[in-house]
Amino acid sequence: MRRARLTNIVRHAVEHTDFYAGHEPDHLADLPVVDKMTFRTQGPAMLARGVDRSTLHPHYTSGSTGIPFESLWDAGKVLRNQADTVALAERAGYRLGTPLLYLRAWGGQYGKGRLRRLKEGITPIEVRTLDASRAREVLLAIRRRSHPVMMLGYGSALEELCRASERTGIDVRGRVAGVIAFGETPTTYLRTAVPVTFGRPLVARYSNTENGLIAQQEPGESAYRINVAGYHVEILRHGSDEPADPGEEGRIVLTDLFNRAMPFVRYDTGDLGAFGADEDGIVDDTVLVSMSGRTYDRLFDTHGRFVNPMVTPELADYDLRQFQLVQTGHGRYTLRINADRDPERDARIRAEFLDVLGADADLRFEYVDEVPLLSSGKRRPVLNEWRPGQ
């Protein structure tokens, strides 16, 4: 079934879009790898000919770049995404009719009307105003509920609730049916704190605005099971469009099996991951054993080598309210800290980072009242504002 769907969508793209016209539909690897810039520059050539745009459902994303990108879904894709949403949520503890506490940046395309939210059982929590006081209010509201709620939100927002529970002692165990994190790679702290705070295992989801729900963990598992009914996923090397070796981290490139109005064939998501492989090196292309976040969040050490953000110190053992590591140049880094000044603590933190970035790294500390959210409402612990050659 999966192979047939892949063949059908690729053939459809070749036969019905100007961009893919002329390509051989029977050899996926011969088709070009595309990205957001391709869709922005090619415009109408990416749409199936004869499609009435007024019947399509727009989905807007800028990721963290601030550059707008519009993905258009047809009715079949919308229905498929709705089915995926329910099916994957049920595997994390959701049951039909369970109230949903949804923590994200609201507004724009996500600013559903109040009546519609009530009908769908959604309580929106705006992460851009989720400070310590607001987090306490949310926990108290959960505890007052007579029935358990399902929690879905950015990892950093869920962390805020966990830390608020630690500070206040507010116990919401027994009031939560399940916890799903999306939009940000979960930290070690979040994985440890969610079961303690909410009495449920953390389930992380891999999704994006332009395509939908791509993969999700099973409760208690660290690997992500790909939604193979809806997507064909490839892992390609960083410097070429060749397949990565078994277990090697590379670029996540997907083909959406259901969007016929705007086919996404070999779409580079901008994310990094690796397939699972057995002891004989046989690849399991239905499982992602690692997810490393956005390509532009990767750092370079003082020798110009890639540093995976997942190996940078998480600083969970220090009394920090927030932190963010920013690379500003070759061998130059700024660590933004929301915490009281403590020279002894900072010296230990510096030693941890220099061990990863290089002993000769120029690491500067910047004390802030708040680590800023991105325009998407997410908060990234690692940012790279520099690239080699700049």
TrEMBL record:
A molecular-function term among this protein's GO annotations: nucleotidyltransferase activity
Family matches, as InterPro entries: ANL_N_sf, CapK_Type1_Caps_Biosynth
Keyword list, A-Z: Nucleotidyltransferase, Transferase
Organism whose genome encodes this protein: Cellulomonas aerilata
Organism superkingdom: Bacteria
PANTHER family linked to this entry: CAPSULAR POLYSACCHARIDE BIOSYNTHESIS PROTEIN
SUPFAM superfamilies the record matches: Acetyl-CoA synthetase-like
Residue runs in coiled coils: none
Entry protein name: Adenylyltransferase
